[in-house]
Amino acid sequence: MLILLPPSEGKAPRGTSKLRRLSFPELASPREKVLDALIALSESGQAQSVLGLSDGQAAAIDLNRELRTAPNLPVSDLYTGVLYDNLGLSTLPSDAKARATRRIVVFSGLWGLLRLGDRVPPYRLSMGVRLPPMGGLAAFWKPYVAEALDPVKGLVVDLRSTTYAAAWQPGERAVTVRVLREVSGTRTVVSHMAKATRGAVARSLVECPDRVGTARQLAEFLTERGHRAELGNPPRPGRPWTLDVIVS
Predict the structure, then answer these.
(1) 132 contacts 47 by C-beta, under 8 angstroms
(2) pTM of the entire predicted model
(3) Which PANTHER family match (predicted)?
(4) Residues 6+ away with beta carbon under 8 Å from 177
(5) What stretch of H or E contains 221?
(6) Tens digits of per-residue pLDDT, 156-183?
């Protein structure tokens, strides 16, 4: 099983050692290109505008300038925010932490793909940015990510936001999890609550020692764990299943 997560805008502020070799080593060359481009942008006067940062977020540009020499920390500690708070990596028992390390892949505008054990410095770069000179990062990363992940077998549980989902489409072996809020029989898409629910779903999946290999098994498992999960109709060829998790 692969569990696909987005990163978070919020990141822990401190690390302890310099950048080292990352998982998915086949991404080394495109990572260098994005890293060079981001540092160059951050040394120009256009970074705040291109990165879409408010005045209060502009200090993140300083982090980007120092990426090659800045202290780093594990991905499991780096990302903060609602999704990762509800995933609660630090409170998992050791066997669930091991499954999380094997199963979770975090998509990143800067690094492409990361595992929880990778160590990287804090940075600011969304997958939705058009970074000179490569342009849109989702389109830039797409062929490299496909080469890295297409050969990986098994169910793919997609908990990414739309921005990060554009970087790879895993096809009909995947289940895209949507979070809907139901009030008086009416269902709507939610954002903040969706992050919390996706984190809780990811936690349920890494706490599970049993093999969940199909979309139907996934829906049954999440229902057993107390989630209100509804599997959509079989997808068109080449398209993922849709699993709605209903909250109120």
Answers:
(1) no
(2) 0.93
(3) PEROXIDE STRESS RESISTANCE PROTEIN YAAA (PTHR30283:SF4), PEROXIDE STRESS RESPONSE PROTEIN YAAA (PTHR30283)
(4) 157, 158, 159, 198, 201, 243, 245
(5) helix 215-224
(6) 999 999 999 999 999 999 999 999 988 8
